[in-house]
């Protein structure tokens, strides 16, 4: 009996020693991993975590990311709806699913540049440059902007990925003239550009604008404005567009909220091309989107623009978009309001409407989705406009035309359309994310 008791005590002591050693080892490993994580958090090298062999474990599960995703989903499901809206994924929206399913997207911000679709899919913005943190919301001197301001960031010659230190309300004295290879990334903060001049993209390439509230833009000009570190010049009066794209290419405008400006919300003219306008929320405006300078400006025949996953909401009247000459893919957008028409055009543009949801207004004289401005009666019948898989509600109707030439529509096709029944889910988070 005594021998058995001594053996039992000895086994207990051995077990206790093993437990203590395990806890000590786990604590050391936790401290070491925490130090490594802190080092990774302070690093500017994108995706360094995936290449760190020291953090691997020989007994890891086959798919650790799937396990982590399950745990993270269960945690998020117990939090408030606001957070769920921002971090939700697998929505069927290929842009959002590309980056929002990454729990560490803030450490991999530049991966956004790989998520674009449509004709502007090759716009890399400032992906290959360093980060620039905007710390100053001021715009006191458009010729000699202070370091730390948004204007100082966008005029630099080098590629830059521009982020914001905190929420900001920026009132620009003059047009914000961007230089090539820039990304404005307002994810995670609440940034308004309002009550002054707004954004000009002129004779440049590779621009990404993401996550801004742009509204109440006003005409400005007749002033000197800097466009690069080595150049400034006289600017005549600007129209007051939220975003003006002039003679530029490889442009991506995504997840912005735009409303109530003096002229257009987005204008792309003068030979601009390779453009994607996606996931934006448009409200309270008359002439929403203009694509093409004039009927006589034939250089706009090169224009290719994708309009995808946007929500055209309350208070809109016309031009969603209004097109000239080029090739336009209007795909999986949600049209819940117009007072005159949704899609218009002149000068024989090719318009490929696929998988959109069109909800006509109550006005019985404004049920038609389309409007044509033609030089002589009947000329529009030769223009290639088609509707494929669109959902037409409350009496909405789309007037198709043309010979449905496969080659023409191939140049107006930029991604595979999803079913119009999915539009509500795809566009549910359109606009600047909270």
TrEMBL record:
UniProt keywords, alphabetically: Calcium, Lyase, Metal-binding, Signal
Signal peptide: 1-27
Enzyme Commission no: 4.2.2.2
Pathway: Glycan metabolism; pectin degradation; 2-dehydro-3-deoxy-D-gluconate from pectin: step 2/5
GO molecular function: metal ion binding; pectate lyase activity
Residues of the Pectate lyase domain: 167-364
Cofactor: how bound: Binds 1 Ca(2+) ion. Required for its activity.
Family annotation (InterPro entries): AmbAllergen, Pec_lyase, Pectin_lyas_fold, Pectin_lyase_fold/virulence, PEL
Annotated Gene3D superfamilies: Single-stranded right-handed beta-helix, Pectin lyase-like
Keyword Iron in record: no
Domain of life of the native organism: Eukaryota
Family: Belongs to the polysaccharide lyase 1 family.
Protein's name according to its UniProt entry: Pectate lyase
